[in-house]
């Protein structure tokens, strides 16, 4: 191994949480090292090529995990500087106030309370929305918290076809609202705007670098001479001191071989799945079940949302370029007509689905070459795609584990399906009343009733849950490990529940909060 160097802070992972924390602490003057297992994603024409991205899977990790039955699958995961935010759909929602409280769901299931409240994150949410350039309209979401300040950036405008759908929803008594979208857009001078509202946004790297992602946060951090970034650095183990109470060094594999560094403070931000896997892989005599795992909670309570893609189809062509501008939360806490008194979930528009995108997404059902491109293009031109999303609830049996060869195993059973099916049924009625659309296509290639399959890891969370009781959680309310004095976690693994909206903004806001805690208590 090379000579071991010591830093004030080592951050493992450069996605939403790790990159945001690094840029927040960069001005401290403390020595900061960011370890990223991926490289810089090349800016090239293929960034916006649907066939390259979705069929050839040019940027997807060449990695296979196993499910609870031992069957191998390729997760939809990407290892690059900036993490999965490079490919996300840029929808940045706040959790509701009630999402942080204990909530009763159907059939006796419970979404547990967090050890922090919405108020603990409120100011950080506002800062995160400005930092990540979130465009939205406060007050249009019927479940939004009225005391939140206006967005710093105006909402994205609806395409004409989306406006027609919105008009129909309003006529039915619903309250569709403007989605909070994180992009760099100059509405006052569109000719000078990085964001051009194109069809290659969610699922694609942005060729114009207009999407707010982890790369921008990393670059801001690197503007400071005290911050370093090492790419191609896959962390394989965290070593501890003899008493097992502190991380003594971080071992990573580079293109030049194994390397080792030390950090006075270590921040884990590799994503809910890989962060848990790393702690499990780092077991030693003092931590025989894995680091920080005296509670046997590391890896447990994995969540990734109970979600279905619901595709509204019309016979005439539908002209949309940037449909992902509208969402519905009228059913978030239950059916407003009183037919179901438990939380149902959230509905949002998805990105434009090009024929090659459809062929790639249907690859689990049919080889793409069996689906003629002209037919896929014709279908794509007639779709308005929605994501219908219900909170999946934490269960100890849903967990990240390691196989004997060190590879990842995801054991997962879907839950909260009654609420999800009711939400789908209500949404189908709404869209049928819109007059022009019928739901003849539903779901990704799925395991259960159109539910997003296990390889869909975009909304991964849980696995290193925060809590006051060390016997039932991994980190405390400050996201500091109960059993490791210099280890913090700032990705979605610390989430106690998944809510029913995209988790990224909550991870970003929480990373800002934890950065302030580290600055106050460690530096």
UniProtKB/TrEMBL annotation:
Keywords: FAD, Flavoprotein, Oxidoreductase. InterPro entries: FAD/NAD-bd_sf, GMC_OxRdtase_N, GMC_OxRtase_C. One of its GO terms (molecular function) is flavin adenine dinucleotide binding. The lineage of its organism: unclassified sequences, metagenomes, ecological metagenomes. Signal peptide: none annotated. This is Glucose-methanol-choline (GMC) oxidoreductase:NAD binding site. It comes from hydrothermal vent metagenome. The keyword Flavoprotein applies. Belongs to the GMC oxidoreductase family. Residues 456-509 form the Glucose-methanol-choline oxidoreductase C-terminal domain.
């Amino acid at each position: 191994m090379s000579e071991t160097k010591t830093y004030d802070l080592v951050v493992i992972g450069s996605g939403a949480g790790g990159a945001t924390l690094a840029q927040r602490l960069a001005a401290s003057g403390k020595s900061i090292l960011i370890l990223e297992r991926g490289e810089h994603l090349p800016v090239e024409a293929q960034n916006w090529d649907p066939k390259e991205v979705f069929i050839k899977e040019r940027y997807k990790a060449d990695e296979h995990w196993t499910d609870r039955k031992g069957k191998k699958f390729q997760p939809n995961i990407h290892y690059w500087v900036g993490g999965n935010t490079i490919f996300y759909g840029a929808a940045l929602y706040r959790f509701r106030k009630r999402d942080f409280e204990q909530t009763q769901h159907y059939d006796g299931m419970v979404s547990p309370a967090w050890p922090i409240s919405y108020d603990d994150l409120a100011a950080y949410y506002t800062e995160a929305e400005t930092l990540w350039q979130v465009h939205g309209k406060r007050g249009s979401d019927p479940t939004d918290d009225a005391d939140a300040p206006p967005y710093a950036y105006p909402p994205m405008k609806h395409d004409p076809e989306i406006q027609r759908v919105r008009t129909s929803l309003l006529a039915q008594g619903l309250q569709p609202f403007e989605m909070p979208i994180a992009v760099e857009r100059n509405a006052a001078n569109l000719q000078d705007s990085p964001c051009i509202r194109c069809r290659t946004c969610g699922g694609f790297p942005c060729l114009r670098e207009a999407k707010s992602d982890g790369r921008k946060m990393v670059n801001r951090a690197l503007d400071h001479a005290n911050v370093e970034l090492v790419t191609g650095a896959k962390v394989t183990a965290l070593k501890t001191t003899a008493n097992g109470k502190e991380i003594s060094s971080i071992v990573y594999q580079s293109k030049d071989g194994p390397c080792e560094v030390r950090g006075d403070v270590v921040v884990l931000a590799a994503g809910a799945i890989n962060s848990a896997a790393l702690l499990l892989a780092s077991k030693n005599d003092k931590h025989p079940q894995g680091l920080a795992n005296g509670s046997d909670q590391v890896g447990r309570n994995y969540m990734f949302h109970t979600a279905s893609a619901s595709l509204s189809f019309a016979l005439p062509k539908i002209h949309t370029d940037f449909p992902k501008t509208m969402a519905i939360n009228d059913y978030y806490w239950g059916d407003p007509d009183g037919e179901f008194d438990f939380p149902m979930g959230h509905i949002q528009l998805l990105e434009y689905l090009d024929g090659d995108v459809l062929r790639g997404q249907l690859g689990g059902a049919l080889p793409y070459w069996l689906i003629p491109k002209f037919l896929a293009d014709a279908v794509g031109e007639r779709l308005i795609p929605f994501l219908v999303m219900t909170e999946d609830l934490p269960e100890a049996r849903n967990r990240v584990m390691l196989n004997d060869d060190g590879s990842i195993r995801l054991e997962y059973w879907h839950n909260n399906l009654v609420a999800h099916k009711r939400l789908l049924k209500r949404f189908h009625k709404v869209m049928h009343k819109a007059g022009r659309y019928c739901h003849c296509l539903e779901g990704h290639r799925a395991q259960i009733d159109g539910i997003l399959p296990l390889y869909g890891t975009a909304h991964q969370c849980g696995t290193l849950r925060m809590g006051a009781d060390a016997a039932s959680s991994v980190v405390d309310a400050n996201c500091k490990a109960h059993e490791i004095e210099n280890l913090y976690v700032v990705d979605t693994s610390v989430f106690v529940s998944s809510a029913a909206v995209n988790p990224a903004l909550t991870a970003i806001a929480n990373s800002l909060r934890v950065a302030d805690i580290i600055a106050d208590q460690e530096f």
